[in-house]
Amino acid sequence: MYVDEDVNRVWKNIKENIKTAAKESLGFHEWKQHKPWFDKEYVDFLDQRKQTKMQWIQDPSRSNVDNLNNIRRDASRHFRNKKKAYLKVKIEELETNSKINNVMDLYRSINDFKKGYQPRTTIVKDKKGYLVADCHRIMVRWTNFFSQLLNVHGVKEVRHAEIYTE
Q1: What is d(CA 92, CA 88) in angstroms, rounded to the nearest whole number?
Q2: Are residues 127 and 64 part of one domain?
Q3: DSSP readout, 130-157?
Q4: Angular region, 118: left φ>0, alpha ψ -120 to 50, beta rest
Q5: Alpha carbon of 122 to those of 32, 107, 135: distances in Å?
Q6: Could you tell me which of 34, 47, 95, 160 has the fewest CB atoms within 10 Å of its CB?
């Protein structure tokens, strides 16, 4: 038992040191919630589904399989209904904006629907292939990249296309 506790304590220490170092070097970024229908009730369903799956993994009996399937079905049904309700409200909002000739909000909402999910890249690679996460270093990297790309030195002859007209 002593060795087991010692290993767990050492592992916990290593894990905390890695988290601290990552937080100091990369910073902490809270993700913006992209799905407005994702709420506390949604999280509760996910937790319940996870707990049921853990029970099934520990004891793969027929009753646990049935329980897991029922929880999955109920969670999926709940998620679908929440999303449908959200979309219904958004469509009604579009209709209202259309009826009262609120064109700016109408087109802004339509563009939000058209765009969908767009991931943001906040990490780039430098010339050597190393990842750069610092904002200032990223700007320097992009500046160097585009200056090399667009400022072509050493081009002696530029051919002009001749245009023949009748």
Answers
A1: 6
A2: no
A3: -EE--HHHHHHHHHHHHHHHH-------
A4: beta
A5: 14, 28, 8
A6: 160
Domain of residue 52: give its range. Answer: 33-118
In this predicted structure, what is the pLDDT of residue 108?
Answer: 85
Q: Name, in order, each residue with C-beta under 8 angstroms of 34's C-beta and a sequence gap of 6 or more.
A: 117
Tell me the C-alpha distance between 109 and 90, whole Å: 8
Q: Give me the amino acid identity at 1.
A: M
Report yes or no on 95 lying in a domain.
yes
Measured CA to CA, the distance from residue 115 to residue 118 in angstroms comes to 7
Residue 113: strand pairing partners: none
- How many other β-carbons are positioned within 10 Å of the β-carbon of residue 45? 19
Q: Which residues sit opposite 124 in a β-bridge? A: 132
pLDDT at 123: 85
Q: Quick check: 154 pLDDT over 70? A: no
Read off the pLDDT of each residue in 116-120 and give the average, rounded to a whole number.
Answer: 69
Residue 162 to residue 100: CA distance in whole angstroms: 55
Q: What pLDDT score was predicted for residue 52?
A: 93
Residues in the chain, how many? 166
Convert the pLDDT of each residue in 120-132 to its tens digit. 778 888 888 888 8
114 in the same domain as 58: yes
Residue 53 burial (CB count, 10 A): 15
Q: Is 162 a member of any domain?
A: no
Query: Higher model confidence: residue 129 or residue 39?
Result: 129
